[in-house]
Amino acid sequence: MSPRSAARALLPLVVLTLCLAARVAAQPAGTVTFGVHVTLATRWLDTSETEAEITPFMIYYALHDALVKPMPGNLNTPSLAESWTMSKDGRAWDFMLRKGTRFHNGDPVTGEDVKFSFERYKGAGAPLFRERVKEVQVVDPGHVRFVLHEPWPDFMTFYGTSASGAAWVVPKKYVEKVGEDGFRKAPVGAGPFKFVSFQPGVELVLEAFDGYWRKKPSVKRLVIRGIPDEATRAAALKRNEVDIVYFINGPIAEEVQRTPGLTLTAMRTNGVFFLEFPEQWTAGSPWADRRVRLAASLAIDRQAINEAESLGFSGITGNFIPRHQEFTLPIDAHPYDPKRAKTLLAEAGYPNGLELGEFTAFPPYNSMGEAIVNYFNAVGIRTRLRTMERAAFLSAWRDKKLRGVFVGATGSAGNASTRIEAFATTRGLYSYGSIPEVETLFAKQIQEMDRRKREDMLHQIQRVIADRVMFAGIWENGFIRAFGPRMEEAGLNLIQSFPYAGPLEDLKLKKQ
Q: Looking at residues 172-189, what average pLDDT do you find?
């Protein structure tokens, strides 16, 4: 059965699920509730451990603020910093803080908080920052200077976007007073909404911070509710239990699209899905043979899965870096060719196929995983689907505990260099191994000030990775969201390539 046929077969059940749901009272006045696709991790309340993925930023944009961050119309937008400059030799960056900004507890945002937050950061970009940044100087309470060992043209790409969380600022005095555990239990930020309560995995409740520097939020209360089951999210939207939902696909998305009063919208994000082959670095493993990795890629009908799962909104790709990011080399995906896949397996010594064991889907994209498993089995790569909760999956990936083959994904901003650093170099938090040629070229390009020379080296790196089949790109994600009739401005298309609502202070309810 094709992915499209399987999806169609589920439609009657989906319709029944939506239609049988009892109607409940609408959301309280001034409250907006999100139904999100993941269980809410406690560490997402704290910016210090930001992974190389976009999910935590749906909370950061509410609770916290950064010196610089992506906003409507600009990847690097002045926020807690109103301006910045680079020295002529490229070795120093000076940030002038915006006057009058405060944390939710009333403390002013100062240079000491910026320095403290940066030195406390231990997320995906931390190894590179430790290598490149010599020191952070607090010139005065409103002036911070980052001193580099060498010129680093990508400093703002790493620092001032969702490529890392290093620019997001937390209050030094408060963290030191309550401790790390205390901060996660009752976080204080500088964002448009302040903390009220949190049920780990289930629900985060926030209320408007009237003192937010950019503007006073028009929404009084924000509730972020984890609803991992897709049909349950859609039913909650139809019942007006939630106002905005993330991640709906296939027949459920089609049903929402047909429902009066509900609006479906998709965003081509920074997110790219790709096959990850962790055992290619293990001598003697079948996956150490390029022909086996290529066979796995050729076995998948990407467009069929795209049409069934994301209604065709995703863009097929052979790269693990989105086309719209700087220095990206467009690479076509391997064509769907099961006959050649079987031939390659036979040439590699597996004429009767091979046992993969478990294939792990990227949560919560389990139906995509099911489709890939079916395609693998069809060419003789015998496997079964393993599903995991998002936080557990990311922890296992970071700790190099995922084996066999799995779907990797990331939605962080940046450019080709930031993406390669995280996934294809020895310093990368999610990298299982690297290619010496890639390491050499990466080290050269990262401090090259000539843009054309950098681009040539980064393109060369991407060719090497593609030729090696280090990864097998699947698609640039077309992330589907929907909102209900109460929303005048849902914020789902304001920040380029950002899959979630933002800026959250721009949310607006219709007048009742």
A: 97
